[in-house]
Amino acid sequence: MSQDPQERxxxxxxxxxxxxxxxxxxxxxxxxxxxTFDEVSNMLAQNIPPEFxxxxxxxIIAILTLGVPFEHLLHKRRGDNIxxxxxxxxxxxxxxxxxxxxxxxxxxxxxxxLLTMIGxxxxxxxxWGERRLKLIIPFAILFPLAVAxxxxxxxxxxxxxxxxxxxx
Amino acid sequence: xxxxxxxxxxxxxxxxxIMLIFGSVLIGVLVGxxxxxxxxxAIALLLPFTITLEPVPAVAxxxxxxxxxxxxxxxxxxxxxxxxxxxxxxxALDGYPMAKRGEAGRALGIATFSSVxxxxxxxxxxxxxxxxxxxxxxxxxxxxxxALAVFALSMxxxxxxxxxLRNLISGxxxxxxxxxxxxxxxxxxxxxxxxxxxxxxxxxxxxLIGLFAIGELLNQSQAxxxxxxxxxxxxxxxxxxxxxxxxxxxxxxxxxxxxxxGILPAEGSTVAAIMGYNxxxxxxxxxxxxxxxxxxxxxxxxxxxxxxxxxxMVPTLALGIPGSGSTALILVALIMHGFRxxxxxxxxxxxxxxxxxxxxxxxxxxxxGIGLVGAKVFSQVTLIPRTILWPAVVVFSMIGAYASASDLxxxxxxxxxxxxxxxxxxxxxxxxxxxMGLILGSLVEEAFSQSMIMYDNNFLGLFESPIxxxxxxxxFFSLFWPFAGPxxxxxxxxxxxxxxxx
Lengths: 168, 502
Known about the structure:
The structure holds 2 protein chains of 2 kinds. By secondary structure, chain A is an all-alpha fold. Chain A is 64% helix and 0% strand. In chain A, α2 (14-34) runs antiparallel to α3 (52-65) and α5 (92-127) crosses α6 (133-154). The radius of gyration of chain A is 25 Å and the shape is flat. Chain B is mainly α. The model of chain B is unreliable at 496-502 (pLDDT under 50).
């Protein structure tokens, strides 16, 4: 009584199966972490233990997640497509943008906040295809300076000066 | 009467506050008009600016931005068929066709009038209902609060978005994030992974900025070449007598509907707008004209989405349960300024509630002026190149996340939240439910722990309270209705059966 592979595929949504497995793996790891919480002293032992609530929430997430690979059936019945938002592949730009942001945040302790802001305003437009230097250069200098002045001098937020010691 | 006068004078008699509200309204309309930028994002980015302000102007700014942002979306929805904000999606259905046939000024006028009417009517409900609800909520003990918070979380199932299941998962993850830090009753560290900065819990601001701003930035990086067909609006005209005769019933009905939907925990302006449009169509004598530039098709969603803003403030302030994603952020602002939103806030500092009411009321009239005079200018904001706009958002996000504690870890949290938000949204997991889960998480756990102490760790003790039982019944329906509802509807309308029964 083996099932037709096509039929099986239509019951289980492949992408959502992967999504569900990732969530379940995260739940597994987090559940394990809850078992490593410190012991509660005897004096406080009559209270709800610290791991109880997170474990309860993790179990609820895991149970709900079990329905994710099958959810497309409900949507199909309603006549809408669960894949409409993700039917296109993710383009290259979000990856590159995220990588740039990570690199800039890594650089904050070295560059300082002001230079990092200038970096964002100079590199990101170029990365996104802006080629009008007359627009980019004043923007990359004036905008971060204005923001730094507002936060540093008026709102008195301490700015990381970085190894070059550049700050307002 | 004294708190009313005191509260309103806090706003009306201080030119600085009026100026801040005006600034927020301008930012709100601007942000609302820009496709991709949303009210929650703007409120999240505004949070760090308000740290140094007094609580009244800080919260007044956010409330004003919330109202104006909801309205701003209608300008671009009508003029370029690109709703600047999700609540304006339904407005584009009739607003753009009307603008296309050369009546952009009329469409903008109907939208402005309906928005202001909806907003003002909902504020009247807010000012009456919030103290009344707070008076009831004062009788709540931890078990009732626990049940109420669970009910609010269950409402995430029906929050705007495609999937009830994914919204619930998202909300539960938010609750889990809320458990990071030291456990209040035992002092045990949870999920801190050796970072001493996390012992006080995950800071709300970086998570909110990351989810709403960085997540959207990554999303927008895929649509850099999007172009919009722009329609010129020379003058915005308030509805004339014929239009008023056509739309007044729709405006009143949608205002009531929007206020009610706003009051429901977790439901927001987008749901209100869509329901406002559907109801306008259902009651209209000109159903066939919907989608071709029908005035009721603009008035319905606009009155409803702005009415939801006043409605959403009711549970936020009276119960401490956010009525929408944006009010969740206003709740965070209140907490940051040392307030504990809920019945005690309403009872002990009523002037504060009236001050917020005053700020929202002024905001509504300000955007009436802006809508009439400045719609043409605001439609031009879409000319700002995305390649410049979004780097500016990144700068504000980085500084905003960093500024609240001057800690680089918060910038990392923002970035991680942003990347997670981008992935979550792509796979249909709502961001607003996560935020609401994060905010309600600690309330749920605290109330649950206190209840268990009250009932000697006996869970069944919770059912001794009829209010708790009532909330649990509502929770049950709210959880299962999104799944059972379509089945029930199908059974009721099954051909033959329904007819026979009727």
